[in-house]
UniProtKB/TrEMBL annotation:
It comes from the Eukaryota. InterPro entries: Methyltransf_25, SAM-dependent_MTases_sf. This is Methyltransferase domain-containing protein. Pfam families: Methyltransf_25. It comes from Oopsacas minuta. SUPFAM superfamilies: S-adenosyl-L-methionine-dependent methyltransferases. Residues 82-173 form the Methyltransferase domain.
Length: 228
């Protein structure tokens, strides 16, 4: 259970950082809804310190700014309706709010993470779901753009989650995703983006690569697709 991995009173934040990194890297496939909820509910109160300060991940900032650049390039206003998929504690939403965006919905698998999002004061709506099993029919073509930073990996959201997010966006809208290079290329996520391009679901309109996506100079990608 996740509690055995992360909640021992004897573990320092550094210990939890090491265990979380190994858990995210080594899990053979996507985890169950219950396990993912437990992991992220338990970490909600110290997640920012764990992920940013101890693990050195600032993809939320780089990804938000890349997304903003893409939106500005294609003439979207600051009042568009945005879905922050895998919102976590609200780091992406907070940065987008600082950049002027005013209509953001937070989506996450963890109830306690969404409580943290509410405290940031930058979201209008909140939705708890597992993108691996929830079709989000209520949000069909409801958003002008989606941002999904750091959720597509073998331990978190499977490749078909991209189709779910695609279905939430109006024609001409944007979907921005990020992933570690290893996970993107080796666990079906890259193949899914290419399949969706080939079938006319969306077209790839932007890409930014980084050699320091995560601690240890791990490479990663930020990608933007326009819904067709």
């Amino acid at each position: 259970m996740a509690s055995n991995l992360f909640t021992s009173d004897r573990l320092t934040v550094e210990d939890k950082s090491t265990r979380l990194y190994k858990w995210m890297t080594d899990r053979p496939d996507s985890s169950s809804t219950e396990l993912l909820q437990e992991v992220y509910d338990e970490q909600a109160s110290y997640y920012d310190e764990l992920l940013c300060d101890k693990m050195g991940w600032y993809g939320w900032k780089e990804g938000s700014e890349f997304f903003n650049g893409q939106l500005e390039k294609f003439g979207f206003s600051k009042g568009i309706r945005i879905l922050d998929a895998g919102a976590g504690t609200g780091l992406v939403g907070k940065r987008l709010s600082e950049l002027g965006y005013t209509n953001i919905t937070a989506l996450d698998i963890s109830h306690k993470m969404l409580i943290q999002c509410k405290e940031e004061g930058c979201y209008k709506e909140f939705h708890q779901c597992d993108l691996n099993i929830d079709s989000l029919d209520a949000y069909n073509k409801a958003f002008d753009a989606v941002i999904a930073i750091g959720i597509f990996s073998k331990a978190l959201v499977l490749p078909q989650g991209m189709k779910t997010l695609h279905n939430c966006v109006k024609k001409g809208g944007l979907v921005c995703i990020s992933s570690r290079s290893k996970h993107f290329e080796n666990f079906g996520h890259k193949a899914m983006t290419e399949e969706m391009v080939a079938k006319g679901f969306w077209k790839n309109i932007g890409r930014q690569d980084t050699d320091n996506y995560f601690t240890g100079q791990i490479s990663g990608h930020y990608l933007t697709f326009q819904v067709q």
